[in-house]
Amino acid sequence: VSVPCMFSNMPRAHYDEELAHHQEGVLDILQRAGIQVQWNDNDGGCKGACDRVPHQNVTDLKLSGQCIDGECYDEVLFHNLENYIDNLQQDGIIVLHTIGSHGPTYYNRYPAQFKQFTPTCDTNEIQSCTQQQLTNTYDNTILYVDYVVDKAIKLLQSKQDKFTTSLVYLSDHGESLGEDGVYLHGLPWSIAPETQKHVPMLLWLSADYQQRYGVSSQCLQQKAKTQAYSQDNLFSTLLGLLRVSTREYQATDDILTPCREAGR
């Protein structure tokens, strides 16, 4: 439910899954505004969020050295990506749906060189592992996620001669690692522990973006220290980032609003 909810204009507290299936999400709105949309998936599908925009399941490519038992490392999402960007003739948004730190096979989420924390839990029977083994394995997945996000930012930086670029990273859910006997994720919000609800979010803006649209990264960094944000902010933040005007846009939900120069 988290993925379609993130791209819907409905806040989490009032999200209606059935209604969302019959309602346009933010990607549909962006596409209508003339922005080229591409969804690349490495996590079993978009659950309806990308049904009406161009999308591909890169897991199905089964690239050599990138995939194990039908699951692929997230670097597979970069396959032909640079070529796609180079051929863009209009504004575009690319969604990379990563498998990230999904369990229970955490040990399959990262290549061998990212096995920095040991001993690890190299089984899907995670209850049989010690807490330290499980934590180490999860930390290795985070190390690899950091690498993937960094690689995406560097790719965008390399295209600044042609494009004004930005990046948003946001997890769809957290993960329980055995605290109080709870594992994985997916518990109802009302009873889910904080480990499943507290998720990371990262916003990167190129220097050109900041200058062109009057957004202060220093202001954003200060706001991040004191303000609480959630997946509810994604819808309007994406519209704001891409400068799309629609009545669905809520300036109060756009993370960039307080850090934009007046009139920009």
TrEMBL record:
UniProt-listed GO biological process terms: lipopolysaccharide core region biosynthetic process
Keywords from the UniProt entry: Cell membrane, Membrane, Transferase, Transmembrane, Transmembrane helix
CDD domains: LptA
Molecular-function GO terms, alphabetical: phosphotransferase activity, phosphate group as acceptor
Domain Sulfatase N-terminal: start-end pairs: 2-242
Localization of this protein: Cell membrane
InterPro entries according to UniProt: Alkaline_phosphatase_core_sf (IPR017850), PEA_transf_C (IPR058130), PEA_transferase (IPR040423), Sulfatase_N (IPR000917)
Entry GO CC: plasma membrane
Membrane topology type: Multi-pass membrane protein
Pfam families assigned: Sulfatase
Lineage top rank: taxon: Bacteria
UniProt name for this protein: Phosphoethanolamine transferase EptA
UniProt organism field: Klebsiella michiganensis
